[in-house]
Design brief:
With about 120 residues, the chain is mostly helical. The protein is about 75% helix and about 0% strand. Helix 1 runs antiparallel to helix 2. The longest helix has about 35 residues, at about 40-75. The protein is flat. The termini are far apart.
Length: about 120
């Protein structure tokens, strides 16, 4: 991968991370402003369910941030864009769609098939 492509993906990853962090700050401030003081039990239950889903989403995004940071480290180390299983280059189309990808499509498919077989046992 040439330096221009690396710079492009670095910028893309940093922008993605910043967007996630902005969203999480919005959620945090909304949690601090809103209190679950609805008088109606049904309204309260609906609010609690909504916040539970929102917090679960934020937890998934927290894990995504660590994957983004790992991808940024791979760029720094010159390993970004190469499959961690086969060592082959990951296609630019795949990286465009999933900038945190660590495997080629073929390696990922094999991994998922093996995982499925393990779960079926």
């Amino acid at each position: 991968m040439n330096p221009r492509q690396q710079a492009y993906f670095r910028r893309k990853l940093l922008e993605w991370k910043d967007a996630i962090l902005r969203e999480s700050l919005g959620t945090l401030s909304q949690l601090q402003l809103d209190s679950l003081r609805e008088a109606d039990l049904t309204d309260r239950a609906a609010s609690e369910t909504d916040w539970s889903l929102e917090l679960r989403t934020r937890d998934r995004q927290r894990k995504l941030i660590s994957k983004i940071e790992a991808a940024l480290r791979r760029i720094d180390e010159g390993e970004y864009g190469y499959c961690e299983v086969t060592g082959e280059p990951i296609s630019l189309g795949r990286l465009e769609a999933r900038p945190i990808a660590t495997m080629t499509v073929e390696a990922q498919e094999r991994h998922e098939r093996n995982e499925k077989v393990s779960r079926d046992d």
